[in-house]
Amino acid sequence: MAEPDETEIIAPSFYEPEAKLASQQQLVLLNRCIESLPTKTKQAFVLYKFKNQSQSQIAEQMGVSVSMVEKHLATAMLACRQALKKQ
């Protein structure tokens, strides 16, 4: 029987407690950021990122233009980036 390769013995980095804690902290920050967004911005972001709807579907559902959906998404993405940079 062959000896396992050294890389097979080492656990992936996502099993390391520090990496797991950092990931959990990022998720908490992102969740707080999303919750603090204006209602329409949060709605567009959630539909796009978590419900996998297209921008045109979101625009129709929200009763706004695709351009407005794009603005909401840009605002949300910027807020999320800024929240993670403050970390």
Structural descriptors:
5 helices; mainly alpha
Written account of the structure:
The chain is an all-alpha fold. The protein is built from five helices and no strands. Helix 3 crosses helix 5. The longest helix has 20 residues, at 17-36. The termini are far apart.
Query: Helical stretch count?
Result: 5
Helix- and strand-based class?
A: mainly alpha
Q: Give me the Rg, rounded.
A: 19 Å
Order of helices and strands: HHHHH
Largest sheet: none
- Total DSSP E strands: 0
Could you give the distance between the termini?
48 Å
Which band does the percent of strand residues land in? Answer: under 5%
Helix content: over 70%
Write down the overall geometry.
elongated
- Uncertain segments are none
| Arithmetic mean of pLDDT | 87
Structure, briefly:
The chain contains 5 helices and no strands.
Write the layout of secondary structure elements.
Blueprint: H1 6-9, H2 17-36, H3 39-49, H4 55-62, H5 66-85
